[in-house]
Amino acid sequence: MTAKSFEELRIWQKAIKIGDDVYQLTDLPPLKNDYKSRNQLIGALVSISNNIAKGFEYNSRVHL
């Protein structure tokens, strides 16, 4: 099966799930008050799913 959108990719779905899980953990001590580490973690998590989506879109345009 060929994915028609990046949302169909299992790797993207897993990245979102992991992001949600880690985001919930950052709301707990000690990360809750460690703003620098918290922001770095959240930024990295968002970057993972964004990069998967960008790669999918790039590859989709190349093959048109």
UniProtKB/TrEMBL annotation:
InterPro entries from the UniProt entry: 23S_rRNA-intervening_sequence, 23S_rRNA_IVS_sf
Domain of life: Bacteria
Signal peptide: none
Protein name: Four helix bundle protein
